[in-house]
Amino acid sequence: MTLKGEHIYLRALEPEDLDFIHEVENDEAIWEISCTQTPYSKFLIKQYLENVHKDIYEAKQLRLVISSHEHLTLGLIDLFDFDFKNKRSGVGILVKEPQDRLKGYGREALELLIDYCFTHLDLHQLYCNILESNTASIKLFSNQGFQQIGLKKDWNYVNGSFKNEYLFQLINN
Q1: What's a single GO MF annotation on this record (predicted)?
Q2: Distances (CA, A) of 14 to 65, 67, 78
Q3: What pLDDT, in 10s, does the model give residues 100-117?
Q4: Are 130 and 120 in contact (CB under 8 A)?
Q5: At a CB cut-off of 8 Å and minimum separation 6, what does 54 contact?
Q6: From CA 46, how far away is CA 18, in angstroms rounded?
């Protein structure tokens, strides 16, 4: 499956993504966002990649690679807690390198994923959880029509202190 935009495309994970996924999952700078607690071995990530062929209805998640048209791997966009009965899923996105952020790649990836979810997966709603301090993600999701529907106080314990997290939701009308 490939979802193409003007500057990027979304594609399925491949075995060749092992090193990229390993770097992302072991980058302590983003653990706060992903709620990761411990490093992942290449062995575990390789096992994960061997099982990504599972259908979203079985796995309850989908991870796609954000790639430039020059085939550079820029980041990842995920559907998680996929709930077909209630027609909803969580969304997470990461553009890995700081120099690739704020260039519209995340916006375009999110637009492609939203369209895919509402058109092909027949979902009714998407939601995301964003740390109160993550103003770039708040702006990204708000600009795509997500509404802030709640604040989870002291939700995540990070580096010795509790942080608030917003809950955003997009309903397909």
Answers
A1: acyltransferase activity, transferring groups other than amino-acyl groups
A2: 9, 12, 15
A3: 999 999 999 999 999 999
A4: no
A5: none
A6: 6
- Provide the 3-class DSSP secondary structure of residue 107: helix
Q: Domain 2-123 classified CATH 3.40.630.30?
A: yes
Parse the chain into domains and list their residue ranges.
2-123
Q: How far apart are CA 159 and CA 28, in angstroms?
A: 11
Answer yes or no: is pLDDT of 98 > 80: yes
Q: Is the Cα dihedral 51, 52, 57, 60 positive or negative?
A: positive
CA distance 39 to 160: 19
Residue whose entry in the numeric block shows the structure tokens 């795509």 = 144
Per-residue model confidence as pLDDT tens digits over 127-139: 999 999 999 999 9
Residue 26 burial by Cβ neighbours in a 10 Å radius (0-12, 13-18, 19+): middle
